[in-house]
Predict the 3D structure of the following.
Amino acid sequence: MKYCEFCLDKSLEREKSEILILGIPFEGSVNSRGGSSAGPEAIREASDCIESYSPFFEKDLADLKIYDDGNIMVKGKGKQALEAAAGAVWKRISKGVKPVFLGGDHSISYAAVKALVSKGHEFELLHLDAHTDSQDEFSGDSWSYASWVRRSREFFHGNIYQLGVRTGTKEDLEYASKAHKLFLAPQFVEGLRWVSEKTKGKNLYVSIDIDVMDPSLAPGTSNPVYGGLNADQIQALFYALKKTNVIGMDLVEVAPNLDPSGRTAILAAEIIRDGILAWWG
């Protein structure tokens, strides 16, 4: 495993870290365009290609205590695998540390959220994605990347905000519009303003599927959908949540085999860097 260049102080001990990078290279039931299990390593490699300093936030990763805790390897599929992943995450994260999870398919977010809830954290959830991931089942599987939000509702009772959505079945879009605060992609500005006001001073977990971005920027993902976010919009996200207490984040669905150029993983690394600097720098 290659340790990411987000962690510039190689002598830092895990117990003294303030931000924890943790890969979950899990891929359950997906469509024919798989490959997200290689996402964590691709993002780590791509972190070599970007600067640690952000001119937008005038902050540097070198000034932060970041530790790469490697990967959580999960065998099997479905509920048993995701519950095992949640248990493994629970053991790795300690009080006060900000976790950054590298996926893997989007079902790993179920494990991350479950672990944080089990630790006693109270928070709301911001989900950025081209899809609602709220299908009751996908190809006969109730625990796939298309259903993780629906399954999380079985234990997570906080507010869920969804931004960037631009496709889905009629049933899962109807469910999401009732169970969550759903903003379709053309409503991004309105939705971001709403979320920033509603979460000001509150705890928030941020889950980002790379397919929320326009596929011209991030082609290396299993379900690209035209009409996604651009660079200015993702930058606006970082600024909008500066008065919110972001307690953790994940970035998922980078499939390097679907992008020979490597730009999807580089974009993912840049998003992670800027999220860390904007919210915890």
Remarks:
- The helical segments are 39-46, 78-92, 108-118, 148-152, 170-179, 188-198, 231-240, 263-280.
- DSSP finds eight helices and ten strands in the chain.
